[in-house]
Amino acid sequence: MNQNMGTIVKTDAGSVEGYQNRGLYDFKGIPYAAPPVGKRRWLPPEAVEPWGGVRPAQSSATIAPQPTAQGSMLDQGLEAQPQNEDCLYLNIWTPGLDDARRPVMFWIHGGGFTGGSGSAPMYKGSRLAARGSVVVVTINYRLGSLGFLNLNEVTGGKIPSTGNEGLLDQVAALEWVHNNIASFGGDPGNVTIFGESAGGMSVGCQMALPKATGLFQKAIAQSGAGHSVRPLNEAVLVSEQFLDILNVRPDDIDALRSIPVERLLAAQQELNARTQALGLLGGLTLRPVIDGDIMPSLPLDAVKEGLTGQIPIIVGTNLDEWKMFGARNPEMQKMDEGTLIQRLQRILPGVDVESLTQTYRKALTRRGVPNPPVDIMTAIQTDQIFRIPAIRLVEAHQGQGQSAYNYLFTWPSPALGGAMGAHHALELGFLFGNYGEGWGGSGPAADALSRSMQDAWLAFARNGDPSCDSIGQWPTYGQDRATMILNAECQVENAPYEEERRAWDSIKNEVLGS
What we know:
Blueprint: E1 5-10, E2 15-21, E3 24-31, E4 54-56, E5 89-94, E6 102-108, H1 126-132, E7 135-139, H2 144-147, H3 165-180, E8 186-196, H4 198-206, E9 218-222, E10 230-231, H5 232-246, H6 253-258, H7 261-277, E11 289-290, H8 299-304, E12 313-318, H9 323-326, H10 330-333, H11 337-347, H12 353-366, H13 373-399, E13 404-409, H14 427-432, H15 444-463, E14 482-486, E15 491-494, H16 498-502
Helix pairs in contact: 5-7, 12-13
């Protein structure tokens, strides 16, 4: 790393020292809230305690406790990052420490609400910051049982956690940006939140959180939308099972606050199996909760009711999202027709899954795509968890007279002979400019796709419209269902994959999302 200059900036809690690197100023590991440890465990984030002198901000801080990396591309680099409950830190890349008031891009990482970090190498913000003259901020937030476990009901309010503490961490980081980012060359009145997977789901949630109102002006949700939350009654069932696994009484507050993190993580693993046995839908056992206070309603409903204000949005998905998950499940590859139907009946209760299966088989056949049971399952789960929730969020926002843009990322990964297609998270390398280091591929076409994505996201951050020279005119979604296809040559298509989309028209929101 070419570090050639120390840089000191004053924040509202004290001064921090970053460094200058290749024309950018980097700051890493800045605390945006007090450590959520001891009696603060499971409580909303509290203000940072001021410090004297100058705090070093030249290396990443500890990340939220999480299970051992599982080997997916989202886990790259996580094994080298130390974990600790003291994890509420953010990182900044900025072209200048002046009063230029640049657009701010605020990244929320994915990882199923149980993994990931804002300091993962994949999310290095230097390329975006340099290309678009924007300030890029990435954050950590509490994960798993420490960030998304509702204990208020089972403890009778003695631990008043709603199950949305991880979301409240994100709000606290946005408040920090509002109060401090001008000192880093950013505009606190022009903040775009963007995130992928659980980060995209977090974006959808933040649009519905009253506490986040006014803290951002634009939103981009990648492979995540406004469905992946738990109703309160289910969240209570989850917390009851969790305490049973831990063998801790709900009224033993001291015991709960002193349980070692390693034991909490082990209990999370068992919790996943238990919730499946209880018949709770979705693969994300720990997720945000509709508690009636922090999150008053399903985010999608909040959008439909016009509660999100004047916020332009981009929402989109990848064509083959589920291939990344199915590839790690040997049973998926051996699936026959009977197993396909049985599994779909379990995850889509009340849906005519045989008719749905036939719709997808016919559509894939017409496009010349192989359609054994595993590919049918992959296509349906991609749409159930990602694409249909994204489209419904776009439709709801557009229905309120707001600007809403939709995309479909179709660039296929060259990995494994192309078997992974345009899988989950593949677009991240092109957005952050590190596609050649992973599964994205390389060459002039890959370079062009990366330029187009970056320029569109940067244009949107500047003025709320992703149209730009490299990607061309990007119309809002509208009645034509205009969708930007992101590939070697980006182009707008009206109503792509419409036959599959229509198949979900009569299917309720309750079975959508993770």
